[in-house]
Specification:
About 45% of the residues lie in helices and about 15% in strands. By secondary structure, the protein is α/β, with parallel strands linked by helices. It has a single domain, classed as Rossmann fold (3-Layer(aba) Sandwich), CATH 3.40.50. Strands 5-2-6-1-7-8 form a 6-stranded parallel sheet, sandwiched between helices. It has a two-stranded antiparallel ribbon with strand order 3-4. Strand 7, helix 11 and strand 8 form a beta-alpha-beta unit. Helix 2 packs across helix 15. The longest helix has 23 residues.
């Protein structure tokens, strides 16, 4: 339960100096502790009943981006929030993890939404929800459960969130989205969807690299910002510089239109094993290079993740310890959303001064 005293305290924490890393992290930790005693409706109120759109984005593939996207969607839904997952990667990794058949020619998804969007654009018509609602799925998975007679059997369960899948057809839109004026296409699509269906959170799985498709994903994440999963190895860390610069550029472009874009909300250290000396080394490097929020909770490097995916289940559902980690991680993300909810001007990520790049590169 959040009383007026705690609400006032959160307002004080929202006014702290974000450029000071120590006070920023202390504020986040205090808000997390408050949230753990709050109801979902109280958290929604603290979020201003606004849909928080987050893009999970990184330049390099193979860092667990789609896994993180699935588990964030799954965990937020399990916590009681209304969630929409969006696969904006033509490889369809998140689509596969959600057990949606991407090779089905009749499957509706983000690629078919873009079909309708640009067809309407040519004809001078606005996109309507009724034209695209069939692209929103309710994904399911199977796991053993007891039946009415007490015997174990495979039963079907919902992941708990709505989902827009995709397939390789989406790749054909990268050049189209690169044309002037098309940077906000995904933003416009999500406005139509969220106007009809209110979601507390939208989690977008972007494709690796900085393409027009991923540019659209970053643009769309104005209300929540980007979540950046990295594994602690040289190629991933080096490649993140351009992501920081591109995100800053998008923040400046958005601000010219009067839109406060949250930039990068935080970095998730993925596939993490503190016992590995090379990871401990790059953990220190990341903290020096990125003076923006780095989430305390790390996603472990476990072979059971592959086992979970082979069974069509979420990592956080299959492994209870990982489930607790993702719950704590979601609290951190929500705390950052609340801490930054009242920003009247953007906090440009390049103003943090990404350190030591020349020496590191």
């Amino acid at each position: 339960m959040i009383n007026e005293e705690l609400k006032n305290r959160i307002k004080e924490l929202q006014a702290i100096d974000v450029m000071n890393a120590e006070t920023r992290e202390e504020a986040k930790a205090e808000i997390v502790n408050i949230l753990k005693n709050a109801s979902v409706d109280e958290i929604r109120e603290l979020l201003g009943n606004e849909t928080k759109i987050h893009s999970v984005v990184i330049q390099k593939g193979g860092v667990g981006k789609s896994t993180a996207s699935l588990d964030l969607c799954f965990t937020l839904a399990k916590m009681g929030f209304s969630v929409l997952g969006v696969d904006s990667d033509p490889q369809g990794s998140l689509t596969m993890l959600c057990n949606v058949e991407s090779e089905d020619e009749d499957m509706k998804g983000l690629h078919t939404i873009y079909d309708v969007y640009f067809e309407n654009l040519e004809e001078g018509r606005s996109l309507e929800y009724e034209e695209i609602k069939d692209a929103i799925h309710r994904p399911t998975y199977k796991k053993p459960a007891k039946n009415e007679s007490g015997k174990w059997e495979e039963k079907e369960f919902e992941f708990g969130f709505d989902f827009i899948p995709t397939n390789l057809d989406l790749a054909g839109y990268d050049l189209i989205l690169a044309k002037p004026g098309h940077g906000y296409v995904l933003s416009n699509v999500l406005k139509v969807i969220t106007k009809h269906n209110h979601y507390d959170f939208v989690i977008i799985d972007s494709l690796p690299g900085l393409h027009a498709l991923s540019y659209n994903c970053i643009m769309a994440a104005a209300t929540g910002g980007c979540i950046v999963p990295i594994n602690l190895e040289p190629m991933t860390v080096k490649g993140a510089k351009n992501l920081v610069m591109t995100t800053s550029e998008i923040q400046h472009i958005s601000w010219e239109r009067g839109i406060v874009h949250k930039g990068i909300v935080g970095i998730i250290r993925n596939q993490y094993s503190p016992r590995m000396s090379v990871q401990r080394k790059y953990d220190d490097v990341v903290k020096e290079l990125f003076p923006i929020s780095i989430f305390d909770n790390t996603i472990p490097n476990k072979t059971v993740c592959d086992k979970a995916h082979s069974l069509g289940r979420a990592f956080s559902d299959y492994d209870p310890k990982t489930g607790e980690i993702f719950k704590e991680l979601c609290y951190e993300i929500i705390a950052e959303d609340i801490r930054r909810n009242n920003e009247s001007e953007p906090v440009f990520v390049d103003e943090f001064g990404v350190e030591l790049w020349d020496e590191f590169n």
